[in-house]
Prior knowledge:
The protein has 9 helices and 9 strands.
Amino acid sequence: MEFKRLIIKLSGESLSGNKNSGIDFEVLSKIAEVIKICSKETQIGIILGGGNFWRGARIKSECVAHIFSKSQSRLQSDKIGMMATVINSLVFSEILKEKGVKTKIQSAIYMPQIAEFYKPEKCLDYLNDGYTIVFACGIGLPFFSTDTSAALRASELQADVIFKATNTDGVYNNDPKIDLNAIKYEIVTFSEILSKNIGIIDASAASICRDSGIPLLVFDIKKPENIILALNGKKVGTWIKKNH
């Protein structure tokens, strides 16, 4: 394997498969099988989004507007999103355990009856002991995405790389669903992501990765074997790096 310590960011939407929401257990099982293979040679931390249950973009909908006042909508919505990541973390951890993968859940919010509270030193001990870590609750604060959480955890734990597993096969100059002539990048820099306002990751995550020198790969998780291919240096998705 080309990398020894890996942070994987799995979007919540990717966990729902072809469903509009919820969890597709067949999809998670396939991803878990790949994680099992990779964890034999690579230390892995997994950060899960919550978009399969709750997306902040939906706060403008009529039903949510009835629930939250305008001033509180983003704050409360992000809190709900963090709780959605807890559900995903509990489910995915159990699926990994069924596959024989040793796992620990670490939460950025203190909830000892549910998961251990995140501590970098303890997390490093677990990784060195062969555990795969599943991170819940992002960084424990509203207004920060799970992309930022992946960048921050990778920096804290001195990871070699971040894999952002999504429902798209890479980074494009325009939305390929709208622009049929959109061009896919093979490599793009974090500075270009920021200057061109390419929305594949948020600005805070791009800045942390750029400053820490941690490369990030965006690829399609509908083919979970892409994780193995990327770890073995095969051409997959789009690399985002500090320099070309």
